[in-house]
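HUMAN: Mind sharing a backbone?

ASSISTANT:
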Amino acid sequence: MTTNTILLLLLSLVIAGGLSYFQYFFKAKNKSNVVVFLAFLRFLAIFALLVLLINPIMTKNSLEITKTPLAIAVDNSSSISVLKSDKKVEELYQKIISNPALKEKFEIQSYQFDADFKPSDKFDFKGKQTNLDEVARNLKSINKNLIFPTVIITDGNQTTGNDYVYRFDPVNKVYPLVVGDTTTFLDLKINQLNVNKYAFHKNKFPVEVFLQYSGDKNANADFTISQGNTIVAKEKVSFSASKKTATLNLLLPADKVGLQIFKASILSGSKEKNSYNNTKNFAVEVIDQKSTIAIVSSINHPDIAALKRSIEVNAQRKVLLVKPNDISQLQEASVLVLYQPTAAFKAIFDNNKLAGTNTFIITGNNTDFNFLNQQQNSLVFKMSGQREDYLSEFQSQVNLFAIENIGFENFPPLQNLFGTITTNGNVSVLLSSKIRNVATNAPLLAFAENQGKRTAFLLGENSWKWRLQSHIDNQSFEKYDVFIDKIIQYLASTTSRKSLVVTHESFYNSGEAIVINAQYFNKNYEFDEKARLTITVTNAETKQAKNYDLLKGNNSFSANLDGLAAGKYNFSVKELNSNTIYSSHFEILDFDIEKQFVNPDVVKLKQLALQTNGKAFFEDQADDMIQQLLENKEYKSIEKNVSTKTPLVDWVWLLILIATLLTTEWFVRKFNGLL
């Protein structure tokens, strides 16, 4: 307390004593023991009130001991059970947390991890994935700015996430406690299989397979890919003590349209400890998407050749070059590319009003814009006879289809007649035009949709220069050709815009996240945040159905269907207000990634220990690990002097004391007839 506070307290004593004396002894004739007692009560009450008014700060010092955290992270994935180490993990965990010396030196923190990371002291070893990266990320956050050791009881076999070896803070030592049988067994394994999710009908699609061998002897094996009872590919592979891996590249025929399920297998004559990792199922959806694109032009121009080459890069596209007077060749066309239309195109426009084929209109110096105004109303042209060069500006907010900016701003200008171009109705502008870097706010590449019919407009000639510039920038035509292919893909699709759009995969692997996303649009095709969406999922074999609500996120609704068993499922998404329904199906392939291992990953766990200056221990070395933790002098408890300052006004019991003193004084005076 300060000097002023002490002086005020002394003054309070004098005031309290003076007032008590004045009331009970000054001019008083009776100075009995009752009067003395009443004066004492009054003195205490007045003094306590004055002390509350002064409100001195009371300081309390106490010693606090802060222990170093010791993080114990236990692998809760099913691979622990597969390696028959679940009981051993429980035993090791109990041995560490019950050690009295460790409890005295450290603040023990207990966690479990599989795909996620959370505090826990109970484990069921049923996790579908292993993510040691989550352990590193979360411990950095929980024990921020602290120096602490980490013990990880695990087999080290990670199935998802970033490589954990370099994710832990190198300042904090990690002590992996390796569980599982480290004896090398003969084991053949399909380590990884890469295949596209989609293939085109009557084409061949590539399959890349990575095989792995554990063993010390020479081994021969047969690798096969089968569909049902039919073997569609077969190769012989050999391994040895020096050759532990093999890579196969195969081409499979896409003979049937729809979801095709395949089974990859590797077999040898030797008996293996784990045969589950000898097979892997995979699926490919075969799409029949062949389309014919007709380029109609009455003139010769380099744009036509460049456009034809870009379109035919996709093997599913066939390009026809047609004159405006040859309407008979257009019957099989999925998309009409009308290059610089003039009055000679009238028959084509008239015929297409009935056929309803989507069109790609490209204008230029030879275009008859008055004729074009008569044939469509999405764009209104008011053009002069003067030619002008137009640069492009990418509009990233357009989301008709996924497209990236491939450097449009650096492309050479397109040439078109000078004038005013305005949009009318439902038109999306992907590229707007600039004249000598001055924005015109007019479209250069635009897309219109009217009553289910789609039209694209490229307003300028010499786009062949764009393709060459893209090759100069990227040493490849690929980016530009993909850009053209996406325009054609958008136009080749005849599906009109739906109010309920559902996104899902045709197949999933067991253990993967199964998420169904949906969007519901009102009559103006605006995302409806008030929609009520539910999904019914039915097992095609057992007919057992489950219902879920789709939860709203950012511009979409989603349902998480994790936990479904392998098999075929039918599902329907329903919007309850409008009764709009979308129905489809998917398949969950039987694949448990946690069953792929026969040994712990000792090499990686030792790398992790080395990177953090820790040390890896095996399950029979738990005592050595505990001893090393106890002997490490880096981890010391910190003793702190904690000073707590409390204002006296916060002492509730002092108010109670004042009330008690005054109440007692009143009753004593009342009892003795002094009131």
Remarks:
- DSSP finds 14 helices and 34 strands in the chain.
- The longest helix spans residues 3-24.
- The CA atoms of residues 159 and 603 lie 16 Å apart.
- The mean pLDDT is 87.
